[in-house]
Each structure stands twice: as C-alpha cells, then as structure tokens.
Design brief:
Number of strands: 6
Number of helices: 7
Order of helices and strands: HEEEHEHEHEHHH
Structural class: alpha/beta
Largest sheet: 6 strands, mixed
Oligomer: single chain
Strand order of the largest sheet: 4-3-2-1-5-6
Length: 229
C-alpha cells in the first residue's frame, strides 16, 4: 500500500512529465537485467562510470535489444574500485556525463521490472541521478537474482546451513561459463542467464543440490548478497 501511495504521489510531482511513462503499467512482459560499474562503493559520493541493460522476454535474452554506455563521472576513481572493473580515469574522460546518458537509459528500461545481482546497490546509484533530474526515485519493481538462487538452493535448508551467495558461486552452480566479470555488459548478460535458468527451475520445481555444511548463518531469510569483488 505504501509503495502504491508513494508512486501515485511521485507521478504527479515528477519534474519532467515526459518521463511519466515510468509509472505506466508494464504491458511488455519483459524484464531488464541491469548492471553498473562505479568509481567506488558509496552511492552518496561515488558515480557510475559504466551501465548496461539487457531485455529478457520469457526465456529469451534479447541481446539485440541492449543498452551499453560509458559515463564520465564527477567523482574521482577510487583505487579499490579500479582494481575491480579495471577502468581508468582516461577510459571515461571522453564519455558522456550521466545527465546525457540517463534519459536514453530510462526510455530503454521504461516501466519494466529491473533485475540484477545486488540490484539495490545499482538502483541506489541510479536513484541519485534520477532524484537530481526528476525529483523522484525509480518506481520499477526490483528482482534480486541471488534471492532466486537462495530459494532454489537454500529455501528448504535446515537452520544453520552455511550460505554462499557470491556471484561466481551462483555461476558455477548453474554451470555457466566464466566471463570477464566486472564488465557492466558481461555482468548484466550473465545475470540475465542466471535469471532465465532459475525461473525455469522454479517452474519445474527443481532445486539446486547442496553439500552438508554448518555455519552460524540463519536461513530464515535471504541475506543481502556480497557483490563478489
């Protein structure tokens, strides 16, 4: 109910009414896999330097319908982040700023649900820009791929089962080939493959086997995933 009320209010206070389509009911039946690379890991002070989005329809990943952009940040690159995505300041020096990238990204996403790994982090990064330009946050439904994985592997696990929700662990469990991880497009594509497989497993009632292991982590709810760096 709170979400509905907030979206109703935001629809009327949005600063650029040409983006009211974000609040339309999604009729496509599609999901968008999204990933961002950033100057650091704090949404309040860091900036997006690369963003990719890929549409998914049923069990088909629409790679011919993808969005991929480098972004010129205002914040300085942090060394710990550069070690992850291996992008340097000079690599994005001639890229467009987010003010120019964001409108095309939002039109690409539309009102579709947004899916990804650690999607709350990516959405927090984007919301900073959306708030600045539109005065509202993104209203799109979020789908966390590690939660789908958790349900398939740990949903029926006994209390005390040790959890491992790292991105590469999910990849290996789903028998997907390795990729150039921490590249926005490659990560978005891999998350899309995970989503399609896990959605199919759920439809067929298939679970992921797990080995015995006891740890101090409760399985009462899916915890927030680590980003895998």
């Amino acid at each position: 109910m709170f979400r509905f009320i907030r979206h109703t209010i935001d629809r009327f206070v949005i600063q650029d009414t040409s983006f009211k389509f974000l609040y339309d009911r999604d009729e496509t039946g599609e999901v968008v896999s999204l990933d961002c690379e950033t100057t650091g890991f704090d949404p309040w002070i860091d900036d997006v330097i690369s963003v990719a989005a890929i549409k998914i329809k049923d069990n088909r990943i629409l790679t011919h319908q993808s969005f991929n952009a480098l972004v010129k940040p205002e914040a300085e690159m942090r060394p710990e982040a550069m070690k992850v995505h291996r992008l340097l300041q000079r690599d994005v020096a001639s890229a467009k700023p987010m003010a120019e990238v964001l409108p095309d990204l939002l039109r690409f996403i539309g009102s579709r649900p947004i899916m990804g790994y650690w999607i709350d982090f990516d959405m927090s990064m984007l919301d900073k820009y959306v708030l600045h330009h539109l005065g509202v946050r993104l209203p799109n439904e979020r789908v966390e791929v590690s939660k789908l994985y958790y349900d398939r592997k740990y949903g029926d696990a006994p209390q005390g089962t040790q959890l491992d929700l790292r991105f590469d662990v999910i990849r290996k469990d789903l028998k997907l080939p390795p990729i150039n991880q921490h590249d926005a497009h490659e990560d978005a594509l891999l998350a899309a493959k995970m989503y399609v497989i896990l959605k199919d497993m759920k439809a067929r009632g298939v679970r992921i086997p797990r080995t015995a292991g006891i740890g101090g982590v409760s399985t009462g709810a899916a915890p927030r995933p680590m980003h895998g760096f």
